[in-house]
Amino acid sequence: MQGFLNVDKPRGMTSFDVVRKIKKIIPRGIKIGHLGTLDPMAGGVLPLAIGKATRVIPYVEDERKVYIAQFTLGAVSDTQDAWGRVDYTGKKDFRAERLEGILQEFTGRIKQIPPMYSAVHHQGKRLYELAREGITVAREEREIVIHSLEILEINRDAELPVIKIKVDCSRGTYVRTLGHDIGVKLGTGALLSGLVRICSGRFNIEQASPLEKILQDQTSINHYLWPLDYPLTHLPAIQIDSREDLQAIMNGQAVAIKARLPQGLIRVYSPENSLVALARSNHEGAGMIKAERVFNKGA
Length: 299
Hints:
The chain is α+β, with helices and mostly antiparallel strands. 17% of the residues lie in helices and 37% in strands. The chain has 3 domains: 89 residues, Pseudouridine synthase; 137 residues, Pseudouridine synthase (2-Layer Sandwich); 60 residues, Roll (Archaeosine Trna-guanine Transglycosylase, Chain: A, domain 4). The protein contains 6 helices and 20 strands. The strands form 4 sheets. Strands 1, 2, 3, 4, 7, 10, 11, 12, 13, 14 and 15 form an 11-stranded mixed sheet that branches. Strands 16-18-19-20-17 form a 5-stranded mixed sheet, covered by helices on one side. A hairpin with a 5-residue loop joins strand 18 and strand 19. The termini are close together.
């Protein structure tokens, strides 16, 4: 059993809860890992690597994330979301044009300070552990990229206005911090009140399978698995027809290749079109390749 499981994670459950539940329905001894966690209050795309796919994780290009975020204005919280201690600012009026201008200010390469309620380490402790003890420490700014921010909906009918925004961002972005910072600029304050990840690298919500459905269909989990090479299409590929060369690659030996290849990492396939290794080309053009990761041995 090997491949990637694109799980539509329900709200109210940690990513590790999802892993534990999936472990119960796959054969004992099969490895499982995830490609980036989701907070318990968030739902949506949670890609899991099963079996040999866990060895592919370091090579997966998952820098880009897309979320549908719901922010409630006129309130702030210590966790920057609706699940913390909420304080009301008494300010909820704003102009849509002003909001659009602020979103432009937060688009591109920006700096963000990780929230205290986060898993960032500080002197051997997680920040959220310190926050629970009532301790606040200085945090270093981190550069992130916000590719785009799109207003999907503005609801002024509720007691507090709610805005729904599509956030296309780099890995490592704290969406609740983004909302908090937007609220500060807007002058109303804001907290995250809903979050769904609709894209993580190549995995998207349209292809995701609800966790409950996967768990109910335990005898057919293979039907939900995406191939080992599914998230690796950004890498060039080569097929090796010579059994001798293929065996040498699998044994970690360097092999001369006549085909022109770009320098760097490439996917290596057998004559049966099965991914057998990730190899590195020593220079652009014809040259030598040597396996960096082989997939014919163990899980």
